[in-house]
Amino acid sequence: MPSKKPRSLWSAPPHTLAKLAILRNYLNAYFAILGRTTNHTREILYVDGFAGPNEYLDHPRGSPTEAMNAAASAIRAAGTNWRAKGVACVFIDREHWIVEHCRRKLSELPPHDRMRFEVLEGRFDEVLPSLIARYPSHFEDDAPLFVFADPFGATGVPFSSVQKILGAERSELFLNFDSDGLIRILKAQAAGNADENLTSIFGNEAWRGVLTAEGDPLKLARSALELFKERLRSIRSVKYVFAFEMQKHEGIPDYHLVFASKHPLGLEKMKEAMRAIARDQGGFTFCDASARIGSLFRFDRPEDWAETVHSQFTGKTVSAPQVWDFVLNETLLVNAKGVLERLEKEKFVTIARKPGAGKRRDLHLMETITFKPGKYLAPSAPKEGLFDGS
Questions:
Q1: Could you say which DSSP state residue 311 is in?
Q2: Residue 66 CB contacts under 8 Å (≥ 6 apart), including other chains
Q3: Burial (CB count <10 Å: 0-12, 13-18, 19+), residue 374
Q4: CATH classification of 14-293, choosing from 3.30.420, 1.10.10, 3.10.450, 3.40.50?
Q5: How confident is the prediction along the chain (390 residues), in pLDDT tens digits per residue?
C-alpha cells in the first residue's frame, strides 16, 4: 500500500489485485440476485467509503469501475427480469486529487439509465451521517445496502460507523480490517494514542485484557480479529461473519478482509468469491509471496472439517440450521452438505429428515442432527480409536 496520504497514482501489489477480484466476483452475484428480487420502488445502494483514484500505475481499474461494471452486467443479463428501481453508487475519498481522478475515470464509462453515481470528498465517518439522511430507506428500512470500506490504516472506520451500516435491515459490509496497523498502534501504546484508537475500533473497551503489547504479531492479529468478529455479531441480526487473511509474506499478517451479513446466502456467495481467488493459493490466506511460489495449503475439502464440526456438537441433537450456520461461519466450506455426507456415512451423525426427503442433505429437508458422543477420528485410524470419549 502507498503512504496514508499518496500524492500520485501507485502500483497494485498482488494482494490488491486479489482484493479487487474478490469484490468483483461477489458484486457480480450480489447485483444479479438483488436486482431480480428487490421491489421495483427500491434502489440498490452501493457505497465505497475509500474509493481511491480508480486506477493504478499497472492496472486500469479500481474498485469504483469494478462495481459499476458488475452492476451494468447484472442489469444487462437480467433483461426483463430486473425488478429493482436501479443502482445508486456513492464513492468517497478525502483527498481532492483522488476524488477528481476517480470522477474522471467514471465519466468515461457508458451511461446507463438504471444506474447513477456520485463521488464525494471527505472523511468516510464524517460523510456517513449525510448519506444516512439522504438514503433513509437503506439505513433505516428494507432497501438493499452494500458498503465496501478499504481505508489506509486501522482507524479509518470507527465501530460507531459499522453499527450505523449494519443496523440496517438489508445491509452488508466488506471491510479491510488493518490487523498490522492495529498491532502497531497497540505496541506504540501512548505514542500511538492506543487507548482512544482501540476503543474507537472496537466500539468499547472489550480489547483491554485481551490484547497486550507483548506477544507474537500473528497471534495478536488473529486475537484482534476474533474480538472484532464478536463485536460484529453483537449487532442485531448480524449472524454471518467471515474473514479472509491477506499476508505480505507467509506468516506475517497485513490485514483481514471481513465480511458481515444478516443472510446466509450473502456469506455463501462471498465465500465462493473468495474461493475463486484462493483456489491456487490453497486456503483463505492470500500471501504476496505465494502469488509467485504456488500452493501453500489444501482448500475446501469436507474431510478436513469433519472433526471440527463433530467436536462442536458432539453428544448433542441440534437443528439443521445450527449446523449450517456453524459451517458457514467457522470453516472454509460454502455449505454443510459434504461434511454431513461424510459424517453420516461414517455413522458419526444421525439425521432426522422430513417425509419424502430420502437421503438428501439439503438444509430445508433436514430437521435435526444427532452427533454421536466422543472424539471423531478419521476412518483410517485404528477401529478402537474411533471414539476415545465416554
A1: H
A2: 20, 23, 24, 27
A3: middle
A4: 3.40.50
A5: 565 678 899 999 988 998 999 999 999 999 999 999 999 999 999 999 999 999 999 999 999 999 999 999 999 999 999 999 999 999 999 999 999 999 999 999 999 999 999 999 999 999 999 999 999 999 999 999 999 999 999 999 999 999 999 999 999 999 999 988 999 999 898 787 999 999 999 999 999 989 988 878 888 888 999 999 999 999 999 999 999 888 766 666 678 999 999 999 999 999 999 888 866 555 566 655 555 443 333 446 788 899 999 999 999 999 999 999 999 999 888 999 999 999 999 999 999 999 999 999 999 999 999 999 999 987 764 443 333 333
Query: Is the overall model pTM greater than 0.85, yes or no?
Result: yes
CATH class of domain segment(s) 302-385: mainly alpha
Name the H helices within 120-193. Answer: 124-134, 136-140, 159-166, 179-188
A 10 A CB-CB count for 351 gives: 20
Domain-wise residue ranges, the chain: 14-293, 302-385
Contact 177, 255 (CB under 8 A): yes
Cβ atoms of 224 and 207 within 8 Å: the answer is: yes
DSSP secondary structure code for residue 59 in this structure? B
